[in-house]
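Service request form, structural biology core

Requester: graduate student, group of Dr. S.
Request type: structure prediction, single chain
Budget code: on file
Notes: please return the result as structure tokens.

Sequence provided:
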Amino acid sequence: MRKLLAAVLCLATTAAVSGCGADVESSSRDDRSSAVTVTNCGREVTYDKVPERVVTNDVGITELMFALGLEDRMAGFAMPDEKGDLSDVPWKDGYDKAKWLSKDPLTKENVLDAKGDFVFAGWNYGFGDDNGFTPDALKKIGIPSYVLTESCRNGRTKTSRGIMSPLDALYTDLTNLGKLFGVEKRAATLIAGFKKQIADVRAQAPAGTDRPKVFLYDSGQDQPFTSGRYAAPEEIINKAGGTNVMHDLDDSWTAVGWESVLDRDPDVIVICNYGDVTAEQKKKFLLSYPPLKNVSAIKHKRVFALDYVDLVESPRNPSAIARLGAYLRRVAESQ
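Core staff response, request fulfilled:
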């Protein structure tokens, strides 16, 4: 389980949503007379009623609920204990109201103890065959679930993930949750604000051969763990004005060899900041690792850190695009 180490300021584009002090659309759908069907991971799933005690796993998934103003529908969340300074998070009220259930990934026991009636998690974001915590296992005990779209398995291998572009995954989940909980207007407003913020960044982004090549470094010394085309960094890098050097990987998060990094010679390395190894420690390793000494990003010390929650599917993705975009513009101007 990765750990969140820092938070971001309230975004201007989300000033009209809860957490920034505005009125919110009611999340009540108790008067709904019909079931709701959405498409999740390529299959239609029907929910007979509005969940009242949702349990979530991990920070990005939890903040999707908060961004939609659905903390009143939550029984609790599981995430690491190092959640960082949450004082300026736009949806701080959600953290104040929802119960923190566990610093470890969810289990069936967590859900049952919380009297949960719905689980929102993802493959490798709580769900896993190895731990027996799966949508099918929950279904057997009468608890419906929803799978984070970024994490949907794509069938290319037993574990490879990703069925659509990362931002489309974010918008899909906001739309589906909006429909399920009766907050369609709120979901549409969030999506429109995110798209505008991203469009503003793209309008200033480097173009053509001026676009810096970027490698996402998550962790690992023998083998780096990185992002393929289906994880959030792909579009965070792309919309910010760079090119993900691992775009050809048909997966979300996966390990590669250092040789592939050397061959692609990135101009910038983006560090995923989380866990017991700090961003500064990761940067020190990269700058001192002998095989990387001739890589452009290392020669020019172009290393930029974003937090874990910025780099997984979450409502913080647009802010991450804006911050990385400003950095990549400076890089492009210096080249």
